[in-house]
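Name: AIFM3 factor
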Amino acid sequence: VEVKIEVVIPEKERSKEEMSPNGKASPLIYKVNGTARHYHLEEHPIASNPYHNPKDMVEASVCHVKDLENGQMREVDLGCGKALLIKESGEFHAVGHKCPHYGAPLVKGVLSKGRVRCPWHGACFNIGTGDIEDFPGLDSLPRFQVKIEKEKVYIRASKQALQTQRRTKMMAKCISLSNYNLSSTNVLIIGAGAAGLVCAETLRQEGFSDRIVMCTMDRHLPYDRPKLSKSMDSHPEQIALRPKEFFCTYDIEVLTEMQVAAVDIRNKIAVFKDGFKMEYNKLLIATGNTPKALSCKGKEVENVFNIRTPEDANRVVKLATSKNVVIVGASFLGMEVAAYLAERAHSVSLVELEEVPFKKFFGERVGRAVMKMFENNRVKFYMQTEVSELREQEGKLKEVVLKSGKVLRADVCVVGVGAVPATGFLKQSGINIDSKGFIVVNKMMQTNIPGVFAAGDAVTFPLALRNNKKVNVPHWQMAHMHGRVAALNMLAHGMEISTVPYLWTAMFGKSIRYAGHGEGFDDVVIQGDLDELKFVAFYTK
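Structure predicted for AIFM3 factor:
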């Protein structure tokens, strides 16, 4: 669809507008977060409006003006789809009613200060624009026109938007891609998880029209990694964050199965494992972490897995069906895998060094309540012990021997004993890394090297709500925000991170949601019924 847009300027303004001081045609100026930015028209394509067809529009009266009080939200039906009608400070707004992340009903969320927050995973949307302002998720909400006539509230909306319930922000494209030297890029992003993808998308949303290259050791385009342990039989295309066409449309190049071996910060060059070199102007390191392996005897046996890829998860499900599974480590990954396999496997055994799952994170009482739920679902725990040996028969796993002397039958073993930051390749680079291997960044996600940013699970950053204590927060939501902040600061916006960390886990149909950063708590205050798992726990100091 080609859309031609004509801007009509009043006669007296035209002479002023026609020439810029240097005598060339004036560039397009548009505002982003209150700052004027200049882009030449040919650099900043105008996105065609998919909703310009009048036949696609629908208008309906949805309520009386007095039906909604200030601060109230209501799901309303327009005949061919629903919208979320909101009244705040005497004004009505209408946006999509489902969160674009996993489809949660936003009417059950929280409305506060011009934003609605998703009840499931905490994504946050501006009610005036529909724009996503906190994560997880990539898309914004469609915004619909509201008008008041004779005390009635009408919504005018596109049928397509009502059906899709999501809106991808307008993005720039790359200009003169064919002129580029293959071995040089303006922005290089190492890692293609949530942080890397959000960084690339934010750059394009802000009108950046130079080359962007993402590289990943993975064989797939960016995908929804939390689903690997929550929905283990998902195929890569089912959990892709964006389809292949998206990357082509917005000129975001993704190099798969490419590992960076070293970074030369003086010459601004990334050296790949296969010897290929790429120059960059700005660099984002978002390599995430690497799972720890077992160090016991027999660790090379077949059918022992760290779940890193969709193929790993799919293979575990296939091998575990009606067989004996041993999971080492009551981590989030270990517990989610145990919950997923409990109905499918013949037996699920979980081995953990601590006395209670999640003790350091959720405290003993919450940990015991979660443990009880697992035991009621046939998961057997072997606590305060470790694996001493993996025994095989004809090369394949047969038994897991514990230090306590217990021998467990096992056809498949999943290891979830934690992870370390994937930053080994930066050791000689001059980029500041702490004693645990985390990249140290400031509130703008900048490292100690100008033009080099880092984001996601591999960094420590100052957390505003804990008096700027340097913390590592390996949450999916936080990785999104890191990527956005890094992109905005590559464009010199001076944006500081101030997000509240948020994570969720789902097991046996129960969802635990956690907001904040409770590391170092010395008391847990519980309201509600812990036995029924209907409670709120406050982690205090």
